């Protein structure tokens, strides 16, 4: 007997997301499962520091506050809740949810998933967590849990785990699991799937985008949508943007399945509805990723404002005056942002910003003594000297690294309301069962030059890349990815031919000394670039002006290239005007 579709909604894309989203998702339309994603690399470091102060913490406290109202609403509507808000202490959060349920008089069964925490782990590790799959979540739901709390699972597992429970999938159902993983990846960042952080945001009202939901079918296909009369939009473009976010390569490897992103097909399915189909899956790798965070040292920064004439000379003077104070500091990074305009109408528009970031194992070398030395220049440096903040103490910073461990070495377990522990075995190893192993990821090779349609050879206009292409970027540890897509076949032929690795490096000079890999996703008319090492030790180290590479794609879109004139929006408009080659939502 075929089961009806499973309706899974998401109410959180990060720790600090919109507080009211839990209530909104439970009251604005029907759901079967409500998920909440609270974890990220930086969040694990924050929770690790919380745990140092109080061993009973280490979970996302906001989630408990959201449940004060949400728990009763979910119970009334028969909605299961699945969240990774347990962070470093899923057992502690599960106990806190039970106490809250007793307090508000809501009879619910709470289970949790554990085994991801591998501490102690190596020297100086603050946190070390394996990325578990959805099988523990599935086991909890099969045992009757109304609320499932996890630690570090993959973001997509919050959706694939409930889907495997609902449809009774097994570990060998690779295509179905892969379809659910892709749906989970679209939902995991909340409003990013409904028009948030979207390159073509001016096409839609995104002042308060609703949160997304997926209608998952038994064959693993899905429809991405949102509750009626909520803000934002769900289009092929918004879903494409999220599919490209923080992925590296055409194989999206996870603990339950390897999803082939190059098989994903998107199609409009009505207003604010996009169908995902055709997803193929392969066996998962025999290893699990482990995210490790450490306190890397101490950092500080001073931001000098340089106004008017002689900006370069003013910057050089400050650097020379502080050279002695910086001599013993391990890492010194100066950046000058020329935000100044000639003959400016306001003082702010006439000013540039010189940023000094220092890092060192010792807080003394980058503490108040250093920032005070900077401020002491106030009456003896460049004309117009001022800084954006007073001297401050050094702050600890974190570094993130990843490793691999055998999947069978991680004690994945589901812990039920009554304390019963259910061991969750890893998926069968293809090498042991004789099944097909996933093909190795090959280094991309230059594809043959596609035969460009005659129209693409027409005269070109120098214009921003973003007049034709959308982009979304993000971080994976010290690496960044930039996904770029277009909306019509002619534009795809042009993008595929034009945006080579060499062209990418030329457009983004900060990547020229780094390894850049291009991945092709023709079904999405998209290219995905991985830039290795651009973020140093990761977001928590504060290495860059944009430490999570969130705006790297928008910088790329702002760079000017030669664009075939007929690909540009009518009237030579720009990225705010839908291209004439293919209206929003078509494929």
TrEMBL record:
Domain of life: Bacteria
AtuA-like ferredoxin-fold domain location: 464-561
Ranges of biased composition (kind: Pro residues): 443-453
Region ranges (Disordered): 419-457, 566-587
Record-annotated Acyclic terpene utilisation N-terminal domain positions: 6-414
Pfam assignment, any one: AtuA
Protein name according to UniProt: DUF1446 domain-containing protein
Source taxonomy: Bacteria, Bacillati, Actinomycetota, Actinomycetes, Kitasatosporales
């Amino acid at each position: 007997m075929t089961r009806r579709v499973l309706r899974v909604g998401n109410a959180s894309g990060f720790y600090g997301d919109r507080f009211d989203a839990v209530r909104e998702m439970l009251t604005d339309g029907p759901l079967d499962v409500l998920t909440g994603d609270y974890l990220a690399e930086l969040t694990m470091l924050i929770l690790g520091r919380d745990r140092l102060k109080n061993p009973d913490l280490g979970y996302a406290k906001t989630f408990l506050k959201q449940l004060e109202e949400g728990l009763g609403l979910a119970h009334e509507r028969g909605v299961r809740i699945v969240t990774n808000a347990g962070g470093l202490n899923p057992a502690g959060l599960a106990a806190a949810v039970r106490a809250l349920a007793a307090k508000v008089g809501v009879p619910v069964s709470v289970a949790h998933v554990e085994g991801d925490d591998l501490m102690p782990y190596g020297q100086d590790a603050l946190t070390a967590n394996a990325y578990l799959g959805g099988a523990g979540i599935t086991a909890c739901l099969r045992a009757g849990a109304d609320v499932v709390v996890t630690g570090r699972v993959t973001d997509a597992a919050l959706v694939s785990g409930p889907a495997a429970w609902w449809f009774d999938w097994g570990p060998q159902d690779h295509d179905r699991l892969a379809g659910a993983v892709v749906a989970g990846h679209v939902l995991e960042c909340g409003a990013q799937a409904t028009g948030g952080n979207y390159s073509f945001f001016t096409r839609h009202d995104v002042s308060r985008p609703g949160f997304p939901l997926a209608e998952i079918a038994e064959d693993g296909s899905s429809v991405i949508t949102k509750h009626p009369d909520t803000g934002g939009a769900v289009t092929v473009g918004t879903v494409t943007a999220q599919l490209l976010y923080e992925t590296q390569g055409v194989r999206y490897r996870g603990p339950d399945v390897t999803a082939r992103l190059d098989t994903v097909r998107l199609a409009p399915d009505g207003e604010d509805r996009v169908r995902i189909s055709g997803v193929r899956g392969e066996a998962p790798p025999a290893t699990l990723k482990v995210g490790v965070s450490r306190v890397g040292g101490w950092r500080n920064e001073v931001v000098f404002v340089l106004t008017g004439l002689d900006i370069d000379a003013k910057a050089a003077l400050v650097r020379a005056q502080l050279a002695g104070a910086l001599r013993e500091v391990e890492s010194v990074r100066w950046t000058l942002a020329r935000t100044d305009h000639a003959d400016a109408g306001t003082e702010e528009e006439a000013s540039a910003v010189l940023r000094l970031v220092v890092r060192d194992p010792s807080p003394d070398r980058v503490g108040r003594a250093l920032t005070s030395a900077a401020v002491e220049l106030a009456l003896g440096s460049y004309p117009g000297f001022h800084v954006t903040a007073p001297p401050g103490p050094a702050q600890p910073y974190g570094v993130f690294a990843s490793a691999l461990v055998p999947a069978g070495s991680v004690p994945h377990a589901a812990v039920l309301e009554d304390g019963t522990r259910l061991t969750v075995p890893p998926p069968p190893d293809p090498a042991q069962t004789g099944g097909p192993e996933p093909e190795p990821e090959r280094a991309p090779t230059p594809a043959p030059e596609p035969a460009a349609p005659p129209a693409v050879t027409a005269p070109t206009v120098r214009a921003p890349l973003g007049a034709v292409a959308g982009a979304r970027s993000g971080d994976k540890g010290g690496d960044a990815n930039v996904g770029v897509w277009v909306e019509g076949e002619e534009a795809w032929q042009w993008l595929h031919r034009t945006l080579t690795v060499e062209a990418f490096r030329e457009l983004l000079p900060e990547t020229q000394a780094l390894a850049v890999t291009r991945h092709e996703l023709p079904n999405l008319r998209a290219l995905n670039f991985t830039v290795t090492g651009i973020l140093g030790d990761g977001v928590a180290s504060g290495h860059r002006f944009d430490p999570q590479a969130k705006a790297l794609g928008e910088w790329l879109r702002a760079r000017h290239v030669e664009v075939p004139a007929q690909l540009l929006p009518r009237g030579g408009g720009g990225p705010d005007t839908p291209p004439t080659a293919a209206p929003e939502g078509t494929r």
